[in-house]
Write a structure and sequence with these properties.
Among the domains are: 148 residues, TIM Barrel (Alpha-Beta Barrel), CATH 3.20.20; 205 residues, Glycoside hydrolase family 3 C-terminal domain (Rossmann fold, 3-Layer(aba) Sandwich), CATH 3.40.50; 114 residues, Immunoglobulin-like, CATH 2.60.40.10. The protein has 759 residues and is α/β, with parallel strands linked by helices. Helices cover 32% and strands 17% of the residues. The protein has a six-stranded mixed beta sheet with strand order 11-16-15-14-12-13, sandwiched between helices. The chain has a five-stranded parallel beta sheet with strand order 4-3-2-1-10. It has 24 helices and 25 strands.
Length: 759
């Protein structure tokens, strides 16, 4: 794809989202309206604004939204996806209650509402924040058309354990890349004016440390040192706040033995006192009631007190605030002034969103999504997110005609477009997705005979609540006889074809929430099928549809071409075909270190040096049965062309503390076709008040170069990039020390220079 066209399309999307609106309200105007409303509200009405009720039954909670709305005791509603019903309930709130306060409808619009984009981990693999911003602007426009003014996204949890199912919702392992993607998504969702009909209120989640769950087990406890919290897990949240995010979601898990939803250090000391956040905090679903389950709260009234005291403004779906806050006020444990303080930002958000003036859904999301540019952007995003992991003897790109008279497309995910959407891609009203098989058939037409074989099904037991709510298809389990026949048919199809495209990985039910895995091996018989097809002696291209790294130990040695497509969204099949047949060039890079197998976890590039470092010539491995190195390093990704990096320069070799300076390097396309690369800058502080990681990403830029073209990339380094939170000094420091700096295509970059910060 021609990069200037990509840039133009992104620019048009971002400019198009800035529709003409009245000037945003000033803070004083918002405050005046909030105080006027507060002065008229009863205690029950205030507590109602702090209550979010489910529009569908969840677990053992059964509610009738209409009854609470008529009493003015529902501030927000979630998990209702019928805009007709939403408008009916909104009419009751706005027209039939005393104060006419509108409902704030929320939904998990994670990577698209009708137009489904690549999942967030895939978008991070594009290393293109502007792309992520444009994608979320489209998602916001479509969701707002159906009445959703609030999305529970972006998720910015740093994750270093790919067993954790929700790794697919974030940007991977690195706080610098994660912060860039967090800023971009907030800007895309919220735009410059929340009252615009094209934007929604964003909710950054899960605050904080949820991605560090023990064993990668969803909901499990996290134990995080202050050093890691400030330097690794908190920076993406801070970036979202700096971008103006309006709401924050508290996390489910225990953080250092204090549940995040009752953790005053997190929600008050850090979020409000240190960072000055003035929006509101919503709990994760039933998390306030779950303080009892954690063994942190004695009962409902204790849970409500601890959550409110910690700083949670709104109770998602548990009813704990509705049942207990009034009692706490009567007991004098919570004052009416404290209740008012918690309600103010909720009312302010509704005012800024323009809900009092425009409370109803237009119910035209289908019309909005019919804009052909939405699908074009989804296809381009998928192309740019995919990572070429292996391309032995330049098997890719494939010829569209002449070389192969027949192609086999094989695998349980080859014609499973729904499985390209991820779990969260199903929650809105997704457009019909294009599978890999469909994409290849459309690309080649009648020029090549294409045969398809699914092979054995892959499946898992799936929580009925998610299956019912999201309408996700689950492949049935097969008898051994059925599975063997499907296996044999697939091998036979490959045998009579000139080339095989195998599409393997994970289905939608195997990732995101409640989808952690103990193993990174291929599910079911996929590995055996891959080996059997390779044994036919025909060329094989492996396309991965998955939400996390998979064990490729065997494949990386035997399969000549491997394309990581992630959960690529509705246009995934078209994008895969574009890349396989050379109409686009892969340029994505891994946002996470790819382990050889689960025994290496956690594995990440920004680790500290040890007394026996890998750079020691005598070093072999810390495992006697496995190399320490990953299968593929962080930032890795191949292209159909080649790039060289040279002439790294530091503009000031001896900057003073607080100075900003520039690092530049030349990048040249040394191949025969145009392509993208991501220039990456890493630093290492050689000494200081704490041991520093061997490398830290501190700059990146995705660029397109024509054959032979050379470009100088520029990176700025200053206090923000060179400071860190020191556990020994217990403060942020920028220290006068010697630094290494590297520029290259991944975290193993060799092009090196140095500088020394002086007093």
């Amino acid at each position: 794809m021609i990069r200037w066209c990509s840039a133009l399309l992104l620019t048009l999307f971002l400019l198009g989202s800035l529709t003409a609106q009245n000037k945003p309200l000033t803070q004083q105007q918002v405050d005046t309206r909030v105080e006027k409303l507060l002065g008229q509200m009863t205690l029950d009405e205030k507590i109602g604004q702090m209550t979010q009720i489910p529009g569908a039954p969840i677990l053992d909670i059964q509610v009738k939204p209409e009854d609470l709305i008529r009493k003015g005791q529902d501030g927000s509603l979630l998990w209702l996806t019928d805009p007709v019903e939403m408008n009916r309930l909104q009419h009751i709130a706005v027209e039939q209650t005393r104060l006419h306060i509108p409902i704030l409808f929320g939904l998990d619009v994670i990577h698209g509402y009708r137009t489904i984009f690549p999942a967030p981990l895939a978008m991070a693999a594009s290393w293109d924040p502007k792309m992520a911003e444009a994608a979320q602007a489209v998602a916001a426009k479509e969701a707002r058309a159906d009445g959703f003014a609030w999305t529970f996204a972006p998720m910015v949890d740093i994750a270093r354990d790919p067993r954790w199912g929700r790794i697919v919702e974030g940007a991977g392992e690195d706080p610098f890349l994660g912060a860039a993607m967090a800023r971009a998504q907030v800007k895309g969702f919220q735009g410059d004016d929340l009252s615009s009909p094209d934007h929604v209120l964003a909710c950054v989640k899960h605050f904080a440390g949820y991605g560090a769950a023990d064993g990668g087990r969803d909901y499990d406890s996290s134990y995080i040192s202050d050093d890691l919290m400030w330097n690794v897990y908190l920076p993406p949240f801070k970036a979202a706040l700096d971008a103006g995010v309006g709401t924050v979601m508290s996390a489910y898990m225990d953080l250092n033995d204090v549940p995040a939803t009752g953790n005053r250090w997190l929600l008050h000391d850090v979020l409000r006192e240190t960072w000055g956040f003035n929006g509101f905090v919503v709990s994760d679903a039933i998390a306030i009631k779950s303080l009892i389950t954690h063994g942190y709260a004695r009962d409902g009234i204790d849970a409500a007190f601890k959550a409110a005291n910690a700083g949670v403004n709104m109770d998602m779906a548990s009813g704990t605030y509705a049942d207990n806050l009034g009692k706490l006020v009567q007991q004098g444990r919570i004052s009416t002034a404290e209740i008012d303080a918690m309600v103010r930002p909720i009312l302010a958000a509704k005012i800024r969103l323009g809900l009092f003036e425009n409370p109803y859904a237009k119910m035209n999301s289908q019309q909005v999504a019919s804009d052909p540019h939405h699908a074009e952007l989804a296809r381009m995003a998928a192309q740019q997110s995919m990572v070429l992991l292996r391309n032995q003897d330049s098997l890719l790109p494939l010829a569209k005609s002449g070389k192969y008279s027949s192609i086999a497309v094989i695998g349980p995910l080859a014609d499973a477009g729904d499985d390209q959407l991820s779990m969260w891609g199903h929650i809105g009203k997704p457009n019909p997705p294009v599978s890999v098989l469909q994409g290849i058939r459309t690309k080649l037409g009648n020029s090549v005979r294409i045969e398809y074989a699914k092979g054995p099904n892959i499946t898992r037991d799936y929580p009925s609540f998610f299956q019912d709510a999201l309408h996700i298809h689950v492949d049935p389990k097969q008898t051994p006889e059925e599975a063997k026949k499907a296996f044999d048919d697939a091998v036979a199809t490959a045998t009579r074809s000139d080339l095989t495209v195998m599409v393997l990985g994970e289905g939608s039910i195997m990732n995101a929430e409640a989808a952690s895995r103990a193993s990174l091996d291929f599910v079911g018989q996929q590995e055996q099928l891959l080996e059997a097809v390779m044994a036919t002696g025909k060329p094989v291209v492996l396309v991965l549809i998955n939400a996390r790294p998979i064990n490729l130990t065997w494949a990386s040695e035997h399969v000549p071409a491997i394309l990581e497509a992630w959960m690529p969204g509705q246009e995934g099949g078209n994008a895969v075909a574009d890349l396989l047949f050379g109409d686009a060039v892969p340029g994505g890079k891994l946002p996470i270190t790819w382990p050889r197998n689960g025994g290496q976890i956690p594995i990440y590039y920004a680790h500290n040096l040890t007394q026996a470092p890998e750079t020691d010539p005598k070093f072999t491995s810390r495992y006697w049965d496995l190399p320490t190195s990953p299968q593929y390093p962080f930032g890795y990704g191949l292209s159909y062309t080649t790039f060289t990096y040279s002439n790294v320069r530091v503009s000031n070799a001896n900057p003073k503390i607080g100075d900003s300076f520039e690092v530049t390097a030349d990048v040249q396309n040394t191949g025969s076709r145009a392509g993208d690369t991501v220039a990456q800058l890493y630093i290492h502080q050689q000494a200081g008040s704490a041991s520093r990681p061997v490398r830290q990403l501190k700059g990146f830029e995705r660029i397109t170069l024509a054959p032979g073209e050379k470009k100088t990339v520029h990176f700025s380094l200053g206090k923000d990039e060179l400071s860190y939170w020191s556990p020994s000094l217990r403060k942020w420091v920028e220290e006068p020390e010697q630094f290494d700096v590297w520029v290259g295509e991944d975290s193993t970059a060799k092009l090196h220079s140095a500088f020394k910060i002086v007093q």
